Structures are given as C-alpha cells and as structure tokens.
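May I ask for whichever protein you like with its backbone structure tokens?
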Amino acid sequence: MLPDACDVETARTFSPNNSFTSPPGDFYATWEINGTEVTFFVTAQTTGWAGLGISNTPDMVAADIILVYVIDGVINYYDAYAVEHAQPPADTSLGGFNNIFNFTGNFTTTGGISNITFQYTRKLDTGDIYDTVLVSESQYILYATGQVIDGVLIQHVSHGVYGMNFFGGAASVAPATTLENAHGSLMMVAWILFFTTGALIGHKYREFTDRWFPVHIAFQVSGTVIIIIAIILIFVDRGVFILSAHSVIGLTVLSLVCVQIILGVTSNRIPATRTVAHFLHRWGGRTTIALAFTNMLLGYYMINGRIALYVILSVWFLLFLVAFFLPLRKKASPDGEGQPSPKYLTRPSKVFFLAYLSLALVMVAVLLALLLAPVTTST
C-alpha cells in the first residue's frame, strides 16, 4: 500500500533535473519528457514489490499508480488507481485502461542486495479518468516498497511522498498534517515529561515528597490520558487503521500502560498480591518505556527523518537511564529506622532530579521546534 500524507517519510531531497532519491537511498526514480510522453526509470531495493504513484495531492487516495512485483523471479506489473488506503485495483477493473507501454523490468540480487529496476512510458494526458495528468506545476510523487508472500502483496515497509514539478523547478514539500504533528507532540510530552518523571518518583525519588504515591499516580494517569488523546487524533487524521510496526507497537504500549496502572494500584492496595504485582509492575514499566522510546524513533522516521530528532531523543533516554539506575544517596533518619523523609534525601540527589526535569523540559521544547519546523529542500 502506498502512503498518504499522514503516513509518510517527509520529502527531504529534490533535484530539478527530473529525479529524486528517497532519504534512505532505497528508491530512485528519474524521468524524461518527450513531447506528449514521459518515460520513468526506477530502481527500488526490494525483493517483493515497488509502487510509483502520481497525484495532485499528497494523499494516496486518487493517486495514479504503477505496481511492479516479483513472483517466482518473474516481473509483473499493472496500471492502478487508489480508491482507498489499501492495495489499489487495476484501472481496467474500474472501467479504465492500461495506459502503460514500453514496459521493461528486471529483478537482480548482487552482494546480498536485491533490486527491482523498471522503466515505462505513458502519455502526459492519457484521457483516462484513472490517470493523473502531468502539468507544469506542483504535483506529488508517491513511492513504496514491500514484500510478496505466497503471491500476496504485503503492506509497505518503505514509503514516501514528494512534492515537485515534473517539468523541473522548485519542490513543494509534502508536510506532516496538523493532527499528525499534534499526535507526535502529545506523545513527546506524555513520555518525556509525565511517564518517565512518574516512574522516577515511584522507583527512585519517592523520598522527594511524603505524598509520592498520589503524585506518581497523577503523573501516570495524566500521561495515559494524553496518549489516548494522541491516538484518537491520529485515527481521526487517517480515517482508517493502517497496519504497521509503529501502529502495532503503539497499541501494545497503550495496553501495557493500562495494565501498569492496574498493577500499581493492586500492589499497594491488596497485600495478598503485592509481591507478584510489584514485580510485574516494575518490569512491565521498564519494558513499556523502552518500547515507547523505540516507537517514537519509528514515528519520527515516518514524518520527518531529521537526524537531530534522533540525537536529542537518544540523549534524553540516556539521561533517563542514568537517573533511573544511578545509586541514590540518602542520609539515615535520626532514629535509624524506616524510610528517610524528604529532608534526609541528600542534596546532590535532589539537585540531579531537578536537573533531569529541567533538561527534559528543554528537550521537549527543542524537539517540538524540530518536529513542527518546515523541512527545506534545495533546488
């Protein structure tokens, strides 16, 4: 399935010389316009299928697509039109025509790397309602690659949307949607400011406040509400559930978060289950945070791809790990019994905790700026 604007790797490269290369370098296309015809030349790193779409919008729906796939080493293709966010049907099945001619393709594997290479020609204006007319103004090119299993084309593993003028000129970047940016921003706030801070208070810095448990619960419940809102926003934006590693991990994380709340309350309210629930709560929390961190990286890859986002997010995660596992220095209480009160938490430990919160706030601000800033392209 080809992507739409809410499930894209935003364009970062453009050449006015009628070509583009995906940021990972796994998809390359160039084209030549001769009179009333255009010929495309494509190389895609895949063992299954490759799709190239042309549209007047960054959405997959209504895109004019060629799907090229390999079955038993044989290259196949068809002229397609996307009517929904799923594998597009052939134009001929919709009452249209196959307007692709002079198609040639090859499937090769060299040094363990497999590529589908193909070229084809079509009219700039085919006269078919299921084909996009190429004009000298901003339009969009969509690409995707995926696997073929038992003759079935599986959902894409690499994809992108590029805004450009096929006749040369300045690029028009396909931006992330407003709701998609809101989704990413809320997830960032939820995990960096709420969940991890709540985890630190519950695991290590509970002596920072005598009311650590209500504070811990408040942070975690607030974070849960925020990620539920974020997930609702992305569903509203897409209008359909798109199966991908990011969506599966995201729903898994949400489920684990809900289980964590139940385990946390159980371990403190029901003595008979305390030992087992506490163990599951501790390791479930660590697993959930690690999965969330991984999924944020996947999400940033899908909508932006800036290296700075990965670097800053990784630095934050390392700081969290240090704060989480660093041995806590505490003074003994005057009577030598029980847990020390907040005033017996050593000053360096308090300073480190506050420093982590301050840096987390700064990182959220920087990440939001990078996430929401427009991507520039050179021409």
Observations:
- Residues 1-16, 340-345, 375-379 have pLDDT under 50 and may be disordered.
- Residues 64 and 181 are 27 Å apart (CA to CA).
- The first strand starts at residue 19 and ends at 21.
- The domain at 178-372 is CATH 1.20.120 (Four Helix Bundle (Hemerythrin (Met), subunit A)).
